[in-house]
Amino acid sequence: MPSLDTLLDRLWSDYRGCNPQVGQIHQLLRARGERVVNDHIALRTFSGPQIGLEVLAHAFVDRGYRAAGEYEFTTKKLRARHYLHPDPERPKLFISELVLSRTSPALRATVEGLLGQVDPELGGRWDLAASGRPWPAPSSGVYQRLLAESEYAAWLAVFGLRANHFTISVNALTTIATLEELGDLVVGAGIPLSAAGGVIKGSPAELLEQSSTIAAPVELELADGPATIPGCYYEFARRYRDSAGRLFTGFVTSSADRIFESTDRRSE
Ligand code: NI
Fold first, then answer.
1. How many Å lie between the centroid of ligand 1 and the Cα of residue 193?
2. Are 7 and 129 in contact (CB under 8 A)?
């Protein structure tokens, strides 16, 4: 069985290739002598037996991860679960899925058309989470129709299965203490941060603060020609200890709800 390192490396190298901000931000941090530690990796999928949340989680559960919390995003028609590894140095996983039973019949029909083209063997693959788009590229018309109802569905239809974002742990940085400082560094390098719901989501009282870049546009080939579409973004997280002194390892629904919008064209 390929190791967890191999699986995480696969996700990481694909993500780096899709997000030019990663190299830039790492260079800024390396220049300060920092070592980057990932707080969590976020994965997106469509509900159902082919590639649903539990199917996607399977390879990680086989490698030691355990489900640790459930989240509902009613307006966006998403549900999510986070997974922890017994080794706290391992990144947490935040896996969400678009619940097709909650979407319009038209969106569901379109997505079921995509899922109908998925290789039935795919769900059993160890590298499912980094396997890319398992259906042919949609047309720009299909993309726009999905986008009108669900930015999440449109992103997933085009980009497929890959890390939507990695997240730098601010707690693990030694020369930067706050999200404000890290944000200043990133914005100073010309990389904009998502302002959806305020630049910093969450608070010390909620035990988690998060911010993120706006996804860099990626040029790709749709069925009817080239298009430029927001790809992956980079997130930053700072965690706090609770009154018992335990570092918070969960997620805050209201913050995650706005973080999803970092791939939205309207997130500026
Ligand atoms: Ni995240």
1. 14
2. yes
Domain count, the chain: 1
**20: exposed, middle or buried (Cβ count in 10 Å: 0-12, 13-18, 19+):** middle
Asked whether the predicted pLDDT for residue 190 surpasses 60, the reply is yes
Ligand 1 centroid from CA 224, angstroms: 32
Q: What is the pTM of this model?
A: 0.95
For ligand 1, the distance from its centroid to the CA atom of residue 40, given in whole angstroms, is: 6
CA 26/CA 229 separation, integer angstroms = 23
196 C-alpha vs ligand 1 centroid, how far in Å? 14
Looking at residue 260, its pLDDT comes to: 86
Structural domain range at position 137: 4-267
> 225: CA distance to ligand 1 center in Å?
31
- CATH number, residue 257: 3.10.180.50
Local confidence band at 267 (pLDDT 50, 70, 90 cut-offs):
very low
Ligand 1 centroid – CA 233 distance (Å): 10
pLDDT tens per residue, range 18-61? 999 999 999 999 999 999 999 999 999 999 999 999 999 999 99
Quick one: CA dihedral 67, 167, 178, 197, positive or negative?
Answer: negative
